[in-house]
Amino acid sequence: MNEDDTEQIVLYMEQGGYLPVGDPSEADVVLLNTCSVRRKPEDKVYSKLGELAELKRDRPDMVIGACGCMAQVEAREIVRRAPCVDFVVGPGYASEIPRLVAEARAFVAGRGASRRTVLLVELEAASRQAAFLPMRASARPQRLRAYVPVMYGCDRFCTFCIVPSTRGPERSRPVSDVINEIRVLAASGTREVTLLGQTVNSYGRRLPDGVTFEHLLGRVSEVVGIERIRFTSPHPRGFTDGLIEAMASLPKVCEHVHLPLQAAEDGLLRRMKRGYSVARYGELLARLREAIPGLAVTTDIMLGFPGETESQFEATMEFVRQARFDAAFMFAYSPRRGTLAADMPDQVPRAEKVRRLTALIELQNTISAKVNAALTGSVQQVLVDGPSARDRTRWTGLTRTFKTTHIEAADDTALGMELQAGSFVDVRITEGRLTGLMGRLADPQSSHQRRE
User: In what order do the strands lie in the sheet with 327-332?
Assistant: First the structure.
């Protein structure tokens, strides 16, 4: 979602006559798009603002804006700690940024009434209304893969999560808006779209006519030119049988699901207010794998939640051993001011969180390497991105199961085929590694290669 937010900011700035530069020291305007899910990215923001303050001392006409989720919840703290900032703007207001830049530059040129830091972060005014949807720039850069938000906000209020405070309540975009955006992308060469939402499978809950997320998947599947559909992130509690059926029956929907677990102990899940039990999650996982052969499953796991005991940690470790996820985003709990968990007793010491996280990463890395190694000898369809940035004798792409695959370019000539960005090719896997797959082009008679 943050990547899409950044793209929207760039598009609106380009519409205002600005061009991106590679070095902040050369920029007239520097915009930081921030994240507040964990503390580490927030610390990086203040560090970067310190660097920008030094640049601004030499170039006082430089405009600095803090944007995004951290800006939403820490606006006044940002202004206090970084007076070099000209404006602070929360997510959903990308269309307003060129105006804020113009106002800041007008002051620098002596046309502004007074020096002030503008805050555009009040969710109460608009974003908390169910009808509020951010404006979106219609022009998108040409690319093979694109993100398309289908909903904004979240109503779940997990006790560890700041998202409802940064992005407001759950709101779904009309089906027609989503489809029109995807049609434009397809016409410009996009072949794979990822539908985005904080709880994406809750899409449509406040839309008329009983629209559901599985209905949306069906409509997106009808868009000519789109060959692959992904979505992230669904919530286990709202994963219906209808959605499983849609994933199994719609050929364009990829055999991959990101299904956040967070923890595998019922007491922890209740304290997190996740709304499901370990057994229910396990049943859903089994139903998905039964319905969709070859399904790849990735997840989120949090260790060190307040009150987590050694036995609860071991319960999560055992579930991971049994579940055999393809990969996982693993992290230590980070208190977020304004969330219920931040004020809970029995906060786990940092050293203990690090120890547990290190053990989990080692376990999951071992599993991921074995899962990928088991694909050796199989044939996987790959959407080719282009030559590898690190090794020009190889090309890279993604399988339908979201695995990065490196293809030996020497097979290109040997099989009388030409690898091209945007082509679909069948690749016989020769090796599975922790971070992806290695392979060679399969026999061209069985290849899906095509270029649209």
Answer: 256-258, 296-303, 327-332
Q: Do residues 271 and 312 touch, judged by C-beta distance below 8 A? A: no
pLDDT tens, residue by residue, 152-173 = 989 989 999 988 888 888 999 9
Taking only the tens place, the pLDDT of each residue in 216-242 is 999 999 999 999 999 999 999 989 999
Please state the pTM of the whole predicted model.
0.88
The backbone torsions φ and ψ at residue 167, rounded to the nearest 5 degrees and listed phi first, read -120, 0
Residue 79 in tokens = 């202004």
Pick from 374, 367, 378: which is nearest to 432 by CA? 374
Q: Which helix (H) or strand (E) holds 38?
A: none
Distance CA(99)–CA(106), nearest Å, equals 10
Report the 10 Å Cβ neighbour count for 295: 18
Backbone CA torsion sign across 194, 196, 198, 202: negative
Q: Which domains does the chain have, with CATH numbers?
A: 2-120 (3.40.50.12160), 140-254 (3.30.750.210), 259-374 (3.30.750.200), 379-446 (2.40.50.140)
Strand 171-172 to 151-152 pairing:
antiparallel
Half-sphere exposure at residue 321, Cβ-oriented, CA atoms within 13 angstroms? 7
Instruction: Rounding to the nearest 10 degrees, give the CA dihedral for residues 182, 187, 189, 195.
Output: 0
Name the stretches of the chain with pLDDT < 50. 112-113, 123-128, 414, 416, 446-452
Q: What is the amino acid identity at position 101?
A: V
Residue 331 structure tokens:
């992290």
What stretch of H or E contains 81?
helix 75-81
DSSP 230-266: EEE---GGG--HHHHHHHHH-TTB-SEEE---B-S-H
> Beta strand pairing status for 394-399 and 404-408?
antiparallel
* Cβ atoms within 10 Å, residue 102: 11
Reply yes or no: is the peptide bond before residue 334 cis, omega within 30 of 0. Answer: no
What is the token pair recorded at 105? Answer: 């530059």
pLDDT of residue 449: 39
CA distance 7 to 210: 31
CA distance 95 to 100: 10
Q: What is the pLDDT of residues 252-305, one digit of tens each?
A: 999 999 999 999 999 999 999 999 999 999 999 999 999 999 999 999 999 999
State the pairing for strand pair 404-408/29-34. unpaired
